Amino acid sequence: MTMIKRWLVMIAVLVSLTGCGYNDFQRLDEATKSAWSEVLNQYQRRADLVPNIVATVKGQANFEQETLTKVVEARAKATSIQVTPETLNNPEAFNKFQQAQGELSGALSRLMVVAERYPELQANQGFRDLRVTLEGTENRITVARNRYIQTVQEYNVLARSFPTNLTAMVFSYSAKPNFSVQNEAQISTPPTVDFGAPKK
User: Fold this and answer.
1) Could you read off the pLDDT of 128-139 as tens digits, one per residue?
2) Which of 17, 44, 73, 156 has its CA 20 to 30 A from that of 67?
3) DSSP per residue over the chain, as a string?
4) Which CATH number is 23-188's, of 3.40.50.11030, 1.20.1440.20, 1.10.3660.10, 3.10.450.50?
5) Whether pTM exceeds 0.85
């Protein structure tokens, strides 16, 4: 009889907890996955641009090889990291991915700055088109990241607030990692695009 009472109490607790945010956790978990997929899509779009940019720049005589090499290496590193839905629940893997994307952002920004020193490259319509596409992609990344940040913030508030934090404990809904403030400015700043006269 005591065992039956225990089971009834446990069932009652679980039923009561499902009314304390369970459905909200399901909704927000799916929303974060969707927002994360869009972030990944935009990062992939940028990675796909890199070979075309590098190929165009390579055609410029005496272009700084070290700058090109850093872009190629940063792209290779960023695309080699395996990202799965579990990445959203693994702060270490998330930070590793974030750092690799930040390195690619930095390498591309340096490439664009160096490219300003080459008038022939600046006059190349193909390169100009790639720069515009890159800038648009960087802006899309920023928008996608902001949407993800907001969705994760809403999810994490639910996971930490009472009484929904009880539901989170019972069903193992831990807080999700988010983009860190430390790298936010570096990663979300699009490369400067200046089609004026090359700097001397």
Assistant:
1) 999 999 999 999
2) 44
3) -HHHHHHHHHHHHHHHHIIIIIHHHHHHHHHHHHHHHHHHHHHHHHHHHHHHHHHHHHTSTT--HHHHHHHHHHHHHHHHS---GGGGG-HHHHHHHHHHHHHHHHHHHHHHHHHTT-HHHHH-HHHHHHHHHHHHHHHHHHHHHHHHHHHHHHHHHHHHSTTHHHHHHHHT-PPPP---HHHHHHHHSPPP---SSPP-
4) 1.20.1440.20
5) no
